[in-house]
Amino acid sequence: MSQERSQEVGDDASIQLEEIFGDAVAAPLEATTGTAVSCHVELVGPHLRLAGEMALGNFRRLSDFVNNHDGLFRVHDAIVMRRNGDLTKVAMPDVWVAPTEVTLIAQPVVDAATAPPPEFAMPKRRDGLIIVTPGHTMTGEIYVMRDAMLSVFIESTDPRFLPMTDVRTRSLADRRVISRYPFALLNRRHIVAASPLPPELLSGRRVL
Fold it and tell me: Which segments of 122-192 are extended strands (E)?
């Protein structure tokens, strides 16, 4: 195995998982979420990326479920993805993922069925951020109370996963890999650096 191949395997778990599964065909995926509301999500970490369904239990919003959940995240009908977002042949009816290893829990599509209900709406101020994580640079928008100080909000440890909209990410391992999500939850523990988005970049904002 070449040095380049070894580095690639070490950086991206999807390659090793594909080698383990080989040409095996996964059994048909059964509906395991029952009648609970579920969201289609992508989980993105430094070494693993996958897509699937996350059941919200008694919660109506993905952010409430994630920030009040203890233990591993259970993802149904999961498909492992490559770093660039391509789907692999590795599909699993259920997979459990450690929250500490997840940088983003993103919704690729937010429709009327998954958008927060009107009664949750509160008057807030929208602020743009530039963020560096162990695996990405990203820009996005957060929502804070109108009189709140942005610095206090950023320095806080609550909520554990920070809700963001209009999220754009670029992989540090491969600058060509750019992803965009209308909504995502960012793991605060994965924030290496954060800064307000300069006003001159608010119009025609670009990925770093």
Answer: 124-132, 136-145, 161-171, 178-187
Task: Count CA atoms within 13 Å of residue 124 on its CB side.
Answer: 13
Q: How many residues does the chain have?
A: 208
pLDDT in tens, the chain (208 residues): 334 433 444 568 888 888 877 666 555 545 444 556 889 999 999 889 999 999 998 898 899 999 999 999 999 999 999 989 999 999 999 999 999 999 999 999 886 555 555 656 677 888 999 999 999 999 999 998 888 888 888 999 999 999 999 999 999 989 999 999 999 999 999 999 999 988 776 655 555 5
Out of 2.40.50.100, 2.30.30.100, 2.40.160.50, 1.10.10.60, the CATH code matching 3-29+36-107 is 2.30.30.100
Q: Are 138 and 194 in contact (CB under 8 A)?
A: no
Residue 176 gets the label, from left (phi > 0), alpha (psi -120 to 50) or beta, of: alpha
Decide if 40 contacts 59 (C-beta within 8 A). no
